[in-house]
Amino acid sequence: MYAAIRAYAITCLLAAVIGLTGSTHASPTIKIAIAQNNPSTGDAPIIERISPADGADNIAPTTAFTVEFDRPVAPGNGDIIITSNGIEVERIAVTSPQVQIDGETVTIDPATLLAYGASYTVTIDEGAIMSAPIPTWNIIPDFALLNSDTSGESTCLANAPWGAGAWGIEAGSFQDSSGRATDRRLDAFRFTTDQNVGYLYARDAQSRWGLARYVQGTAWGGSLCGSPITWNWPAPLDVTSGDAPITLNVQHSIDTRTLLTDDNSWLMFAVNMWFNSEDAPKRLVVDIVLSQECNLSPDCGIRNFESDDAFHYMTRVIPQENASEENVTATVDVRQLIQDARNATYLDETNRPASGPMFNAQTLTLQQLEYVIEVYNAEGAAAVSYLGVEVP
Predict the structure, then answer these.
(1) Smallest Cα–Cα separation from 192: which of 216, 172, 212?
(2) pLDDT at 338 over 70
(3) DSSP code of 136?
(4) 322: number of CA atoms within 13 Å, CB side?
(5) pLDDT tens digits for 343-388?
(6) In this predicted model, what pLDDT tens digit does every residue of 58-113 receive, in sequence order?
(7) What average pLDDT does the segment 239-260 reach?
(8) Radius of gyration over alpha carbons of the chain, in Å?
(9) What is the 3-state secondary structure (H, E, C) of the chain?
């Protein structure tokens, strides 16, 4: 499925001045000048070249304009308007057969003949040409879901209110203060969606490790609460074969992060990626930490460790320039992430390097992707507008 990510509008002007060369039967000379006005925000596609080029001659009146961008583009909403001396000559819908888009190239084929001695301006409406959607492994990465609001202090939750093919939502506690497993509820949780944004809230004040998350896929085959899982399970994604880029992109904004004790609290916002391997005895779980608050003794830092059934690799994301932890757009190279996990040292339960072999799997498949707020005597909330693993 394709996600409408990186869909930024672009406005450009093509000014074509057609001069008479020789007799009235001679082909015109076309001079083209470009004034480009990109939006002030976003990573808009950029014009790299046009054809006919500036100063080209022997151009037929039936010549089409070709515009090449720095990335694949797609039709948006809007028109291409051709004017002469301020008078509209032709208006072409960007979805018309007269506009052909092939990867990075847009060809505009006017029905109107270019007249000798006339000057023209070709204007592409803002929003008419956009960056092409990027295919993603998981579906609905932009949270384009039906509006939903599931809130309150209730039992564990593990379902997909938008249907079985969508994001799952899950909340509950998974361990008490003594380390014993529990399926008890969080003190409070809330999931809402509106305007393609998923809102997530979690709170624990009873020393029970818990989480709330948006999730797709299933690595373990179960849930926190033992409830039926109805969310989307994408087919496993091979992340070790080939060399084409695989990229994780996340956009979120934190509006609550509060520690409820002075010395016994933990709060983490993260993206978790869960991998299986056919040639390693244990799975790999990667925690990509977006934000962390902690006052637990003795250590609240990043720690890679080995558990009974998995290697757990943690890394902090580096926000894009001028972003804060509260409002993050982050991009992660998944292949590099795997290499870093292979080179990491993992600790056992005594905080010493594990005695067995470190994680050295040669084949890995991505099984699960989730946005998670993990709480222990803390509360946190965030709005998630995009989470996707983008694939070639």
Answers:
(1) 212
(2) yes
(3) B
(4) 1
(5) 888 887 667 776 666 777 888 999 999 999 999 999 999 988 888 8
(6) 667 888 888 888 888 888 888 888 887 788 889 999 999 999 999 889 999 999 88
(7) 89
(8) 27
(9) CEECCCCCEEEEEEEEEEECCCCCCCCCEEEEEEEEECCCCCCCCCEEEEECCCCCCCCCCCCCEEEEECCCEEECCCEEEEEECCEEEEEEECCCCCEEEECCEEEECCCCCCCCCCEEEEEEEEEEEEECCEEECCCCCCCCCCCEEEEECCCCEEECCCCCCCCEEEEEEEEECCCCCCCCCCCEEEEEEECCEEEEEEEECCCEEEEEEEEEECCCCCCCCCCCCCCCCCCCEECCCCCCCCEEEEEEEEEEEEECCCCCCEEEEEEEEEEECCCCCCEEEEEEEEEEEECCCCCCCCCCEECCCEEEEEEECCCCCCCECCEEEEEEEHHHHHHHHHHCCCECCCCCECCCCCCCCCCCEEEEEEEEEEEECEEEEEEEEEEEEECC
**86: closest CA among 123, 114, 60, 115?**
123
Residues near 43 by beta carbon (within 8 Å), at least 6 away in sequence? 6, 8, 131
State percent of the chain over pLDDT 90: 18
Mean pLDDT of the chain: 75
Tell me the two tokens of residue 244.
Answer: 């084409």
Q: What is the pLDDT of residue 14?
A: 44
Convert the pLDDT of each residue in 191-203 to its tens digit.
776 767 888 889 9
Cis peptide before 52 (omega within 30 of 0): yes
Query: Pairing relation of β-strands 29-37 and 9-19?
Result: antiparallel
Residue pair 376/266 in contact (Cβ under 8 Å)? The answer is yes
